[in-house]
């Protein structure tokens, strides 16, 4: 709570709480724009699409785009965000199911960034996630954490991280977990 | 283990099927394959197996869409209807006026459903409050027909909204009653609230931060005893301070102390209508085997210690805390009703309706209904049903009986997961289901009453 509403003034019993009774802030600026384009499919496409229709430049752009896809695993290895804070949020919100040593209600998240969704051997995924054809890019993880059943209707994952900064930091932390 | 099935009692229950026997011993420790309305089980401490440290290597079920041939089963004379569709509905409570409050925990919302008496479907759905942090517990205060407040338990706080019967939207800002329940919200995050009928006490259940306090520091015995002396028998410390317990305070949040300790995760609280005792539906620990330790439903007695994390079911020591607390071995209260291990009892409500368009037969009055969310830490699935807890004159017999079953597809998949139960104004039993995102309504047909 304190983390999610960081900056909220201290309050005492009986006083109205600034965080209750209203909707959490909707993402604005960069995050809001990110939500509107299909970045979860092609995270780097926006950088290249402006050159569409210009012959050689277009080919170069496409090659660069393709290369970026090939490099996605390493390029996404350290997404922006505060991994230390992400570890703290993860500890608070995620570890009951995603135990650090595996063996919990959720799958191990070691090496999750860059992994195909629903692909860890031995874990019984929901048909929804197993058939999602998603790859856990930073952008996909962000969308998933913002509303798991919005992105993958039928997933067993329930936890929602409503705060965009928390999501960014958790994804940065997940990227530090090596298989 | 010796297999035994003993005929213990033939229950006189108006609408139920003729009951041949109560399953006991290892026969009582069934899975979804033996579920059927009317099947009655009684598990006792003498039946439990020794701990087994191996993980069965299973996971939570895949929640799938409702198969075409899926059918919910009830005892004869009852019908079930799809009452409402919500997003991840969890705790459910009925306001004195009949409006139905449901926590959409993951969405941070409290919804209000309304239906005419006898209606199979809700007529309206409103949003009472939103922007909350994983709200679960809901309680109206004070008791009686005109509550002034709706209390909501968030993952780490208690707030209340001003309320008048009929409100479908909060008429004012929330007031913070308890700003912080524990150091953090690691682990179990449901918090429930109940008031004593005299209005003097507010109970708040707080689940543990872990499976079995793996990272709680070890205290030398003299320090542990000193901690107990200050905080109550079996109280936990560090990040587990004020967790795995039921707290008590006044309705303003003052005078807070531990009411009962060692209750790993008391998900729902309920006041027993005959004795006015506070009850808990509790999830016990994992990784000790398919049938150990049983979950339970119990009176939460003042000052009692129920074992977590050092013991379970009396003086059975948890092998992960071997030798740590010999002083507590003889101080562990055995819970009233043991439920098949890993069933995950979440919601609980006593059946109090005395009439109404959907009221159950008189034999159900005073019994309790408990929603079993279903197992993950078990080779063969169990739970995923609503059971009836049998009481006689307010005293639990230790038996529980399958009431609403049919959510399991196979050992890998389920299409519904019961969470909360509440008795509607017309006597129907409402059941939330956060697997299928539904609220179900169970009504007794007139001929059954």
Tell me what you see in this structure.
The complex is a heterodimer of chains A (179) and B (449). Helix content of chain A is 40%, strand content 0%. Chain A has nine helices and no strands. Chain B has a single domain, classed as TolB, C-terminal domain (Neuraminidase, 6 Propeller), CATH 2.120.10.30. Chain B contains one helix and 30 strands. The A-B interface holds A 1, 4, 11-17, 19-24, 91-93, 95-96, 103, 105-107, 122-128, 149, 154, 156, 158-160, 162 and B 55, 57-65, 87-88, 106-108, 129-133, 154-157, 159, 161, 170, 172-180, 184-188, 210, 252-253, 287, 376-377, 412-413, 434.
* CATH 2nd-level architecture of chain B: 6 Propeller
The CATH class of the largest domain in chain A turns out to be: Mainly Alpha
String of helices and strands of chain A: HHHHHHHHH
Instruction: Return residue spans of chain B where pLDDT drops below 50 for at least 5 consecutive residues.
Output: 1-18
- The dominant shape of chain B is globular
Q: Which features characterize this protein?
A:
heterodimer; A: 179 residues; 2 domains; B: 449 residues; mainly beta; Neuraminidase; 1 helix; disordered N terminus
Give the gist of this structure.
Chain A is built from nine helices and no strands.
Secondary structure elements and pairings:
The complex is a heterodimer of chains A (179) and B (449).
Chain A: H1 29-36, H2 45-48, H3 55-70, H4 72-75, H5 83-93, H6 127-130, H7 138-146, H8 148-151, H9 164-174
Chain B: E1 22-24, E2 40-42, E3 62-63, E4 78-85, E5 89-94, E6 100-104, E7 109-114, E8 124-129, E9 137-141, E10 149-153, E11 158-162, E12 175-178, E13 191-195, E14 202-206, H1 221-231, E15 245-249, E16 257-261, E17 266-271, E18 278-282, E19 295-299, E20 311-312, E21 316-317, E22 337-339, E23 345-350, E24 368-372, E25 385-392, E26 395-404, E27 413-414, E28 418-423, E29 429-433, E30 438-444
Parallel strand pairs in B: 1-2, 3-27
Antiparallel strand pairs in B: 2-26, 4-30, 5-6, 6-7, 7-8, 9-10, 10-11, 11-12, 13-14, 14-15, 15-16, 17-18, 18-19, 19-22, 20-21, 23-24, 24-25, 25-26, 28-29, 29-30
């Amino acid at each position: 709570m304190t983390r999610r509403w960081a900056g909220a003034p201290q309050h005492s019993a009986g006083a109205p709480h600034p965080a209750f009774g209203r909707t959490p802030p909707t993402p604005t600026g960069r995050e809001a724009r990110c939500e509107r384009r299909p970045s979860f499919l092609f995270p780097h496409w926006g950088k290249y699409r402006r050159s569409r229709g210009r012959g050689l430049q277009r080919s170069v752009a496409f090659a660069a785009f393709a290369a970026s896809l090939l490099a996605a695993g390493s390029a996404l290895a350290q997404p922006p965000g505060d991994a230390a804070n992400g570890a703290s949020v993860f500890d608070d919100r995620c570890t009951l199911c995603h135990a650090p040593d595996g063996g919990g209600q959720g799958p191990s998240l070691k090496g999750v960034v860059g992994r195909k969704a629903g692909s860890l051997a031995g874990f019984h995924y929901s048909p929804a996630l197993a058939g999602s054809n998603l790859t856990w890019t930073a952008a996909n993880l962000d969308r998933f954490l913002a509303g798991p059943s919005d992105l993958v209707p039928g997933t067993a994952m329930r936890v929602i991280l409503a705060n965009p900064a928390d999501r960014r930091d958790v994804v940065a932390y997940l990227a530090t977990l090596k298989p | 283990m010796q297999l035994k099935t003993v005929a213990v009692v033939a229950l006189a229950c108006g609408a139920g099927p003729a009951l041949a026997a109560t399953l006991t011993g290892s026969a009582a420790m069934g899975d979804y394959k033996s579920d059927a309305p009317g099947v009655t089980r009684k598990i006792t401490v003498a039946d439990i197996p020794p701990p087994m440290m191996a993980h069965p290597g299973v996971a939570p079920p895949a929640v799938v869409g409702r198969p075409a041939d899926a059918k919910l089963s009830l005892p004869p004379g009852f019908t079930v209807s799809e009452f409402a569709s919500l997003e991840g509905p969890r705790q459910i409570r009925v306001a004195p006026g009949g409006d139905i409050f449901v926590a959409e925990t993951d969405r941070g919302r409290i919804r209000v459903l309304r239906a005419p008496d006898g209606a199979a479907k809700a007529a309206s759905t409103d949003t009472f409050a939103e922007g909350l942090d994983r709200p679960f517990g809901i309680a109206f205060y004070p008791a009686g027909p005109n509550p002034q407040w709706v209390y909501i338990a968030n993952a780490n706080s208690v707030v209340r909204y001003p309320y008048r019967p009929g409100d479908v939207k909060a008429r004012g800002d929330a007031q913070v009653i308890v700003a912080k329940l524990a150091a953090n919200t690691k682990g179990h995050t449901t918090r429930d609230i109940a008031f004593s009928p005299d209005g003097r006490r507010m109970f708040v259940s707080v689940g543990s931060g872990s499976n079995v306090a793996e990272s709680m520091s070890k205290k030398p015995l003299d320090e542990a005893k000193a901690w107990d002396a200050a905080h109550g028998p079996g109280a936990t410390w560090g990040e587990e301070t004020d967790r795995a317990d039921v707290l008590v305070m006044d309705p303003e949040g003052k005078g807070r102390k531990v009411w009962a300790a060692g209750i790993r995760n008391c998900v729902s609280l309920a006041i027993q209508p005959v004795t006015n005792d506070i009850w808990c539906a509790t999830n016990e620990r994992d990784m000790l085997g398919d049938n150990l330790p049983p979950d339970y439903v119990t009176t939460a007695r003042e000052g009692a210690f129920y074992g977590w994390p050092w013991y379970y079911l009396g003086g059975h020591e948890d092998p992960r805390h071997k030798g740590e607390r010999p002083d507590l071995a003889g101080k562990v209260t055995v819970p009233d009703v043991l439920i098949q291990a890993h069933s995950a009892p979440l919601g609980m409500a006593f059946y109090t309706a005395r009439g109404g368009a959907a009221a159950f037969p008189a034999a159900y009055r005073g019994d309790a209904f408990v929603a079993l969310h279903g197992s993950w830490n078990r080779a063969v699935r169990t739970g995923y049903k609503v059971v009836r807890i049998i009481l006689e004159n307010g005293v639990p017999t230790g038996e529980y009986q399958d009431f609403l079953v049919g959510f399991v597809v196979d050992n890998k998949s389920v299409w519904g997961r019961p969470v909360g139960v509440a008795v509607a104004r017309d006597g129907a039993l409402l059941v939330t289901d956060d697997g299928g995102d539904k609220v179900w309504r169970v009504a007794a047909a007139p001929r059954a009453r």
